[in-house]
TrEMBL record:
Domain of life: Bacteria
Residue(s) at site: Electron transfer via tryptophanyl radical: W310, W364, W387
Described purpose of this protein according to its UniProt entry: Involved in repair of UV radiation-induced DNA damage. Catalyzes the light-dependent monomerization (300-600 nm) of cyclobutyl pyrimidine dimers (in cis-syn configuration), which are formed between adjacent bases on the same DNA strand upon exposure to ultraviolet radiation.
Organism in which the protein naturally occurs: Pseudolysobacter antarcticus
Key word Ligase present: no
Residue positions binding FAD: Y224, T236, S237, R238, I239, S240, Y276, D377, A378, D379
Details of cofactor binding: Binds 1 FAD per subunit.
Entry-linked PROSITE patterns: DNA_PHOTOLYASES_1_1 (PS00394), DNA_PHOTOLYASES_1_2 (PS00691), PHR_CRY_ALPHA_BETA (PS51645)
Keywords of the record: Chromophore, FAD, Flavoprotein, Lyase
Family stated for the protein in its record: Belongs to the DNA photolyase family.
GO-annotated biological processes: photoreactive repair; response to light stimulus
Official protein name in the record: Deoxyribodipyrimidine photo-lyase
Length: 474
């Protein structure tokens, strides 16, 4: 009888280029693919509602892919170690394989599980299925973690080998176990259907991930460097949720970009791919920071920001920001896009974050928590790095004096007003000269019901700069 290996799926919901799965199959073992739902083990950053929607559909897609290969996804609910031990007993498994995660709570949990299984006499082995390089494998010349992106990326890029991914298995010899719970019993889909439009924008699963990359290569790669900041255009890959759930990995994306450029015999496309690879580098950098500075989801990386004079918590102002009722068109467009699709263009993410932390001077943690619950790509490393960057408190951060003006940003990156008009229908018929400044015509506001600006942009910019100066003087 062949030996049995449990492959514990987590944020690696794919069959192609899955190191843990490939290692188990290559060993000649019978494999039991397992997903264990234990959100309490990831506290205080258990997945939010939008991520749960994606997870439900991604697990459905993974199970279908496994069944096409003679296998299935065994689902458990509850304490991970307890479930693994029960499965080991029922299947006679000799080993558990998984791909690593890098959130602080998961690192601590996984270390305990690995040690407990080894104490039980079970082989417990983890792999890198999520990153181009492990966070502990890259350091400065002084042996310290990087805190600035450019030298980090320069070193990573110089050592990056773009190689063909491991193919998905054609057949998976499977050891079945008893009492897999039904996916619906996990209650991942919301009871109130606020997610009703998500399905029109996304196709969770490995197939959807590959389709998104292919579509990006064909339609947007060539002009990515100049188009990526335009929320009114299809200029980005929208691959972030697929990366978050591991339906595709960064090594696969790098290979697909390289092969597409080679097939097109285009030096232009090879050059165009570099800015996109650099964005993958930001994802690596964010995970590097989270690993080495695990306090950053709650506390500023730069200790001086402990003294920053945030405004008192304002529930009313926060609610207006969350619902896209600030009276600043591009801010409201972004927040409404987020609510209806579970996603927001990166340029607009910076604008709404700047508005919250600088014009409203609300703590960046309020924004991070809202994004965490409403983004389908809510990734702890990226979310933390993005909010701390905008607030000025993180590594390689935006300078404290950089306060985005959403009006000038709107005219620059949404020059025809198409993005605003799509998500803020009150302004669909507004003349272009007013679409980013509708308050210049009070009659327009009265006629459409669109709100007046909740703050004076110039005055709040001055107040934010004064607050930063007070902090620097402490």
């Amino acid at each position: 009888m062949s030996h049995v290996i449990i492959v514990w799926f987590r944020r690696d919901l794919r069959l192609e280029d899955n190191p843990a799965l490939s290692a188990a199959i290559d060993s000649g073992a019978s494999v039991l693919p397992v997903y264990i739902h234990a959100p309490e083990e990831e506290a205080p950053w258990a997945q939010g509602a939008a991520s749960h929607w994606w997870l439900h559909h991604s697990l459905t897609a993974l199970d279908q892919c496994l069944r096409e290969r003679g296998s299935y996804l065994h689902i458990c609910h509850g304490a991970t170690l307890e479930n693994l031990r029960e499965l080991i007993v029922s299947t006679g498994a000799q080993a558990v394989y998984w791909n690593r995660r890098y959130e602080p709570a998961c690192i601590a949990r996984d270390k305990c599980i690995k040690q407990a299984l080894r104490d039980d006499g079970i082989e417990a082995t983890s792999f890198n299925g999520a990153l181009l390089i492990e966070p502990w494998q890259i350091e400065t010349g002084q042996g310290d973690p990087y805190r600035v992106f450019t030298p980090f990326w320069r070193k990573l890029r110089a050592n990056l080998q773009i190689e063909a991914p491991q193919p998905a298995p054609q057949r998976i010899e499977t050891k079945k176990a008893e009492a897999s719970v039904a996916l619906n019993s996990l209650n991942l889909r919301p009871k109130i259907p606020w997610d009703s439009e998500f399905g029109a924008h996304w196709l969770p699963g490995e197939f959807g991930a590959h389709e998104s990359v292919q579509q990006f290569c064909e339609a947007a790669l060539r002009d990515y460097k100049v188009e990526r900041d335009r929320p009114d255009h299809f200029g980005t890959s929208r691959i972030s949720p697929y990366l978050h759930f591991g339906e595709i990995g960064p090594r696969q994306i790098a290979w697909m970009l390289d092969q597409y450029a080679r097939n097109e015999s285009s030096a232009v496309l090879h050059e165009a791919a570099e800015p996109y690879l650099r964005e993958l580098g930001w994802r690596e950098f964010s995970n590097h920071l989270l690993y080495h500075f695990p306090h950053t989801p709650e506390k500023p990386l730069q200790a001086q920001f402990d003294a920053f004079p945030w405004a008192p918590d304002d529930a009313v102002a926060l609610a207006r920001w969350q619902r896209g009722q600030t009276g600043i068109p591009i801010i409201d467009a972004g927040m409404r896009e987020l609510w209806r699709t579970g996603w927001m263009h990166n340029r607009v993410r910076m604008l709404v974050a700047s508005f919250l932390t600088k014009n409203l001077r609300q703590h960046w943690r309020h924004g991070a928590r809202w994004f965490w619950d409403t983004l389908v790509d809510a990734d702890l490393a990226n979310n933390t790095q993005g909010w701390q960057w905008t607030a000025g408190s993180g590594a390689d951060a935006s300078p404290y004096f950089r306060i985005f003006n959403p009006v000038t940003q709107g005219y620059r990156f949404d020059p025809d007003g198409a993005y605003v008009k799509r998500w803020v229908p009150e302004l669909a018929d507004a003349p272009l000269k007013l679409v980013h400044e509708p308050w210049l015509d009070p009659a327009l506001l009265q006629r459409t019901g669109y709100p007046s600006p909740m703050v004076d942009l110039a005055a709040t910019r001055t107040a934010a700069l004064d607050a930063y100066q007070r902090m620097r003087n402490v």
